[in-house]
Amino acid sequence: MTVSRNLIVFAALNGALAVALGAFAAHGAGPQIKTLLTTGAQYQIVHAVFAFACAQWTGGGGLARLAGWLGSIGGLIFCLALAAIAFLGVPAFGAVAPIGGLLMTAGWLCLAFAALRSRP
User: Fold this and answer.
1) 22-79 pLDDT per residue, tens
2) Any residues with CB less than 8 A from the CB of 49 and at least 6 apart, and which?
3) What is the value of pTM for the model shown?
4) In whole angstroms, what is the distance from residue 25 CA to residue 30 CA?
5) Mean pLDDT of the region 108-115
6) Helix and strand tally (H, E) in the chain?
7) Per-residue pLDDT tens digits for 78-111
8) CA-to-CA distance for 28 and 33, rounded, in angstroms?
């Protein structure tokens, strides 16, 4: 598989997980965990689409793919940290969520840099 294809597969799996968690949050979660799961699923689905777009942008080169990986891995870490708080009741996972946020932010900044470096 090519790097872009791997990123698309990862993005698709992230998207599927985000939809599943979002559906559970909407239809099966108790009020205490609904907000955590909904927030995590929203960030994860946005960054799954972000990763897919980065994988498709041929003009962005390796920086665009790196942006996609950073964003999608960050979205997954953020979402899983919130899910761990919700399902396991371990608030210490709140210290993990900012790592995901940092990676998502780095992905967006990397994409901006790729756009500045690309040729029109």
Assistant:
1) 999 999 888 889 999 999 999 999 999 999 999 999 899 999 999 999 999 999 999 9
2) 11, 15
3) 0.92
4) 8
5) 97
6) 4, 0
7) 999 999 999 999 999 999 999 999 999 999 999 9
8) 10
- Contact 104/72 with Cβ under 8 angstroms? no
Contact assessment for residue 115 and residue 93, using Cβ atoms and an 8 Å cutoff:
no
Burial 10-26 (b: 16+ CB within 10 A, else e): bbeebbebbeebbebbe
One-letter amino acid at 25 equals: A
Helix 61-88 to helix 97-117 angle (10° resolution) is 160
Rounded Cα distance between 73 and 112, Å, is 18
- Amino acid (one-letter) located at 39: T
Q: b or e along 71-109 (b: 16 or more beta carbons within 10 Å of the residue's beta carbon)?
A: bbbbbbbbbbbbbbbbeeeeeebeebbeebeebbebbee
Q: Which residues contact 93 (CB under 8 A, 6 or more apart)?
A: 81, 82, 84, 85
Alpha carbon 17 to chain centroid, angstroms: 10
